[in-house]
Amino acid sequence: MNKAKKQVGLFLIAACLGSVALAHGGVTNPAVMARMEAMKSTGDAMKVLGTMAKGARAFDAAEARAAAADVARFAAQTPALFEAPEDDPKAEALPAIWERFEDFTAKAQETEALALALSRSLQTEDDLKAGLMQLGASCKACHSEYRK
Ligand code: HEC
Q1: How many domains does the chain have?
Q2: Nearest CA to ligand 1 atom 6
Q3: Domain span at residue 56?
Q4: Per the CB 3.0–4.6 Å rule, which of 1, 35, 73, 86 could disulfide with 81?
Q5: What single string gives the DSSP state of each residue in 71-101?
């Protein structure tokens, strides 16, 4: 992979994880809290992959595969966690989710499929970087349409 591509990838990760810190502080609706917690855990798993890709954490293929499996697991839960149109003053979910729930579900499935494939195939640092770039783009594809 060339350098420019790598940087795009790392940028996407940063875009995904940006302003994460306790975005869900003060949420009172438990259903909203549950979906935010799942997203936060997804973000934590992505952070493991991202810090490894940047070299801030030693590359470990097994650990990276486990983190990708975590992302797949949370993505699999996403449609059920968001199905009811729950709201909270602190929620960042947009009403479009429930107007186009099929598309929202498809986007979650896309993330799940990419993460699952990565959790099975990842062996080298290049696999990690390429997979992370695709995964990061899939998070962003949903956030840019369905998250404030
Ligand atoms: C199918 C759509 C979708 C996909 C795919 C998705 N997200 Fe989200 N994400 C959301 C929505 C919607 C919210 C806002 C939830 C709310 O405020 O109720 C959110 C919120 C978050 C938050 C903030 C949680 C908090 O504490 O408030 C993080 C972190 C996050 N997502 C990370 C990720 C990462 C990393 C990925 C990819 C691996 C990802 N998301 C994939 C829809 C998605």
Answers
A1: 1
A2: 139
A3: 27-83+90-146
A4: 35
A5: HHHHHHHHHHHHSS----TT--B-THHHHSH
The CA 39 to ligand 1 mean position distance, Å, reads 5
- How far away, in angstroms, is 81 Cα from ligand 1 center? 11
84-132 pLDDT per residue, tens: 999 999 999 999 999 999 999 999 999 999 999 999 999 999 999 999 9
CATH number at residue 57: 1.20.120.10
Ligand 1 contact, 48 CB (< 6 A) = no
Does residue 8 lie within any of the structural domains?
A: no
Looking at residue 24, what is its pLDDT? Answer: 74
Answer yes or no: pTM beyond 0.85. Answer: yes
Ligand 1, atom nearest to 90 Cα: 17
